[in-house]
Specification:
alpha+beta; 82 residues; flat
Length: 82
């Protein structure tokens, strides 16, 4: 009986962990909406592999931690102001 309960618990944990994986587009859309609501403009959000080295700001992770979303301020806006 104890083994059956333990097995059931492990199965439920693995199912809930699998359900927690969120697509990169969903996370990217949420980050985009949050930045827009704060008045941030002229930026790029890019999805890259988790192993990709970057000096840019990581603003999200997706696909169960396999990828990350990085934020980069576009320089075009600064040149347009000059």
């Amino acid at each position: 009986m104890l083994i059956n309960s333990l097995a059931l618990s492990l199965m439920l944990c693995s199912i809930s962990a699998g359900a927690a994986i969120t697509s990169c587009e969903t996370i990217k859309d949420k980050v985009d909406a949050r930045l827009d609501s704060k008045g941030v403009s002229d930026y790029t959000l890019k999805v890259v592999s988790r192993d990709t080295p970057t000096k840019l700001r990581v603003v999200g992770v997706c696909e169960g931690g396999k990828k990350k979303i990085i934020y980069q301020k576009d320089k075009r806006a600064n040149k347009a102001d000059e």
